[in-house]
Amino acid sequence: MNVNLSPVFEDYIKQQLDTGMYNNASEIIREALRIKMQQDEVYQAKLIALRAAVTAGLESGEPEPFDVNAILAEAKGRAGLDV
User: What is the documented function of this protein (predicted)?
Assistant: First the structure.
């Protein structure tokens, strides 16, 4: 497999090689791909959770009106704060 990289990426790879952390460009590319795969897994897990939350919200019934001030007053009362 051949991959063409922009000069920006080539310079970055050279900089990384100069640090001595990597033996060759392939190691850098493999690590970058591992990180990308991990990010994709996290993204997919978050997406699944978000979709589940949306579905749960849609299936929870009709919305009911609420009074924000009453909710805040109740929370402050539970916390022992002056209302």
Answer: Antitoxin component of a type II toxin-antitoxin (TA) system. Neutralizes the effect of toxin ParE.
Q: What are the boundaries of each domain within the chain? A: 7-79
Triad 61, 66, 67: Cα angle to 5°:
175
Tokens of 7: 């000069």
CA-CA-CA-CA torsion sign (59, 63, 69, 70)? negative
Alpha carbon 51 to its chain's center: 15
CB atoms within 10 A of CB 27: 14
Regions of the chain where pLDDT drops below 50? none
Q: Cβ(5)–Cβ(13) under 8 Å? A: yes
- 8-state DSSP, 48: H
